[in-house]
Amino acid sequence: MTTKLDSEERKALLRGLEDTGWRAAESADALVKRLMFKDFSAAWGFMSQAALCAEKMDHHPDWRNVYNKVEITLSTHDCGGVSVLDIELARALDALADDDCEVDRDIGRPIMRLADEAPE
């Protein structure tokens, strides 16, 4: 079973993810990111690539798509919070997002808040 990251692991592993647009979810121990693409087809193309990546990693995001927007939430359900799997998937999804999409940074809380909050 995958374990929830402790405070020290969070501090080390979360570094850099905020720069790419990841935030702490408002109401859960989770990472969240919203991407805006030029149109629905571009958003769907990203989601198709992301689905293949997630399937290969056997770790799947919670996500929502409305026209050109894709909102991704990462949390490991087995441990009830952020695990190394979420960090790895966040980095993999960042590598898939092309330069034509824009990151909505006006969601969630600063990601390093997850490092300051003590996991249960």
From TrEMBL:
Q: Does the keyword Ribosomal protein apply?
A: no
Q: What's the top EC group for this one?
A: lyase
Enzyme Commission number(s): 4.2.1.96
Question: Taxonomically, which superkingdom?
Answer: Bacteria
Q: Which GO terms describe its molecular function?
A: 4-alpha-hydroxytetrahydrobiopterin dehydratase activity
Recorded catalytic activity of this chain's protein: (4aS,6R)-4a-hydroxy-L-erythro-5,6,7,8-tetrahydrobiopterin = (6R)-L-erythro-6,7-dihydrobiopterin + H2O
| Keywords per UniProt | Lyase
- Kindly give the NCBIfam families that the UniProt entry links to this protein: PRK00823.1-3
The family annotation for this protein states: Belongs to the pterin-4-alpha-carbinolamine dehydratase family.
PANTHER family xrefs:
PTERIN-4-ALPHA-CARBINOLAMINE DEHYDRATASE (PTHR12599:SF0)
Q: What is this protein called?
A: Putative pterin-4-alpha-carbinolamine dehydratase
